[in-house]
User: Fold these one by one.
Assistant:
Number 1:
Amino acid sequence: MIHCILHTLGGVFGTPKHGAEEIAVVDAMKSHFFNFMGSLRSYWDFQVGYGLFVTVALFIHSLLFWYLGSLAKTGSPALRPILALFFVNYIGFAILAWKYFFLGPAVTELLIVACLGLAFATAATATA
């Protein structure tokens, strides 16, 4: 949930403060509209829209992880494949964050990877 909140506040609704050149780029993204599949959109619309897609996904992930945490108390071996999928998912996020963004999100993703790895390692295995 922390990741979701910080991404939304800083990444989606944050205001750039890196100087006139960045402000000019953002203004250009906001002012250039084009027809995309029957809808008039700007590059800024896509920027904000994709950011909010990530916000929704992170929010749902946080609720799902909360729920899986409660299931982990029952010792269900069915959790292991789910944990493994999200482990791989967040490794991918960490790589993309490192390559295309900056250290903060990459570290956040790696902390989530560590938690998922620990959960996988301590989850019950299937018994006959």
Note: The beta strands are 33-36, 39-42.
Number 2:
Amino acid sequence: MGADTFIAFFGLRCSVANSEIDAVENNEDQRIVVAHRARLQTYFGRLTDGEDYFLFIGTRLGVFGLENDEYDAFDMKSLQEVERETRRKLAEAGLAGEPQLHLQFEAQY
């Protein structure tokens, strides 16, 4: 049994259709393939059972919870570097969209 998780991620948040779940889980989804080729990180999950799945593409800042990271801190210079590098890599990968800071709760179910 797991524990609740809180994800901090800078980049894109994509919806994942039920028909895409297997490809995403097997890292065969085209978004994941081009993201990894551009040295971007990904995170796949959903809020809780029955909710829609999501896929983050960009830079993982942290995954927090009892079974994950407990704490982290970033100064503004490092956050600006994360933003700059993530934007560059997303463009290199051809992934469209405006990257944002995503703070996502993921409940254990």
Note: The longest helix spans residues 76-93.
Number 3:
Amino acid sequence: MKNVALLIVGTFLITLTGCTSSGEIKGQSTSATVDLSRANYRVLKAGAVGTSSGFKLLGFLNFSSPTYAKAKKNLYKDVDIPLEGKSIAIINQTEDSSTLNVLLFQITKLTLSADVIEYTDQ
């Protein structure tokens, strides 16, 4: 009877503790030259932010995961200017991930923030 009680308490304690892990997400990289003496760019949005969230039940039943693609799509939406046909670049990009562990479930969040610039002909 003692062993069963210890097993139940141990299982309960393991369920209450949470684990997080973060992998490295590599985005696309291109090279461009900005001539600061000529000011051949303009800032479309400083501090644009995009997020993506995920949900796990019991720490292992994954219902959804945060994705880099969705966070980037939401970052572009945050610019709130049509970007098609423009020569734009994302600069000063940062990536943050967080996990909220609550008794039986886990909420993960990926946040991208960056400055969006447009190259001009000047």
Note: The chain is about 20% helix and 40% strand.
